[in-house]
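Example record

One chain of 271 residues, shown exactly as stored in the release files.
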Amino acid sequence: YSSAASDVYKRQRWVWAVFSTACVLGAVGLLMRAAGLQGAGLPLVLAGLLSYHPWKADLALGQVYGLLLGLLTLAWYGYRRDRPVVLGTALGLLLAFKMTGLLLWPLLAVQRRWRALAWAAGTALAVIGLSLPWLGAAAWRAYGSVLLHLTDHPSLAVTAYQTQLGFCRHLFAPDAVWNPAPLGVAPWLSDLLWAASVLGFLGGSLYAAGVGGSSDAVFAAFTVAGVILNPYALDYHYTLLVLPILVLLASGLRKPTGPTMTVLTAAVLLT
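Predicted structure tokens for this chain:
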């Protein structure tokens, strides 16, 4: 790269980092205000945020998950306030930008939030349509083709992919390059365990959504499932878990019990 191109790149990275930080801080502010985390909790939350590795990785690599956290927070706000336009528009942008929030779609279907789903689908289609003059239809066809083979690559067995599929394949799916020494040689078992975890997470979450109705905890559960069931989730994807962490923290502080706070603390530390 030339010196001029390098300078432009550095300025663009700086601008993006500032914008991403603004999105994260705005999301955290909205989460804390809406969930009732105020007063003495603010310094604790900010300290935790500044030491949160996924967000630092997101900034270091110039990723988009600060922006996506902002959109996810808007979707949560629209969900809890029953504002289908806000919820659907944010969900559609999440899908169009980065295939994020997919598991929130069946949540809305189970709860019969058809207007929000219509807004989500319309927003995603609008983004695709507006991008066609620049990207062309071939780019979207290639993208769809990639999605059809999303779980085929043996590199998913490496521990960098912090997901259910990556964990199962690391244990049982050998590969000379990516996973030369698994615990056992049973590729079928790794895929079976992953499928069982998907059905278990999704089925349990949908049951809770149908029985318990709309709640912050239900939205948080689907957000967590959407990250850990994503075959390609890396450390910076976990920036999205700022939302369920704060939502569940607020819920735990309203009715604090030893076991609840212990489990929540352990989950946050492991993240």
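Notes: The first helix runs from residue 3 to 35.
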